[in-house]
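question for whoever is on the cluster today: can someone run the full assembly for these? four chains, 210 residues total. i dont have access anymore since they changed the login thing
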Amino acid sequence: MAPRKNFQHLDHRLADALEVMGEWWTPLIIMAVSSGAFRFESIQNSLGIARNILTDRLNTLVAGGVLEKRMYTEKPERYEYHLTAKGLELVPILQDLERWGTRHN
Amino acid sequence: MAPRKNFQHLDHRLADALEVMGEWWTPLIIMAVSSGAFRFESIQNSLGIARNILTDRLNTLVAGGVLEKRMYTEKPERYEYHLTAKGLELVPILQDLERWGTRHN
DNA sequence: CAGTATCCGCGGAGATACTG
DNA sequence: CAGTATCTCCGCGGATACTG
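^ ran it for u. tokens below:
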């Protein structure tokens, strides 16, 4: 479930960041959450990502401390996904990347 | 050869950047080149990436205008890979990502 | 609505051997 | 030294159906 890469031979620190951020959808999910899509269906609709992949990416991001689950209903238990402090620091970086892509097209 | 993703339904501009940067090895290759590994063997050795994948990524990066080939020997034809202006703009962004990963570990 | 469960295809990635 | 050529494995990602 949690995607694991084997880069022990690479002590490159960028590789550590890519361990969490390396999957294609991950940056898009983070930007979706940062723009107000906190719930599963909401993220899924705004991105069109497959549901099983979204489940996997959300779990990985929670495990990596980028997102945190916040219960908003007890019965039944329902969670929203919010950026942690660590996740919030990622947003401006992704915006830079976005601008870079926009600048050169 | 050139990896192609289908995200026409996503007009998200970040997706355009990820079209070039989305593959796992790509950021590491860019940082390797930016730190002086200009030649095939040199990049390959410093990263430990499979040769066929490196060939593919280099072609994609050249096609995407991030790297450019520079001939340094005529017989036989040998090329170095250097960052373009567009590629150079990526470096500080990747350094930010690197610092982000380092900060939270 | 928020997931979980399957099934499947494709391509990323590794390993290795070969060529100019 | 700089690739190209194969072969194989595996996991991402898509699609869809199902559950509480």
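summary bc i know u wont read the tokens: Residues 90-103 of chain A form the longest helix (14 residues). Chain A touches chain B at residues 5, 9-10, 12-22, 24, 27-28, 31, 47-48, 65, 86, 89-90, 93-94, 96-98, 100-105 (CB under 8 Å).
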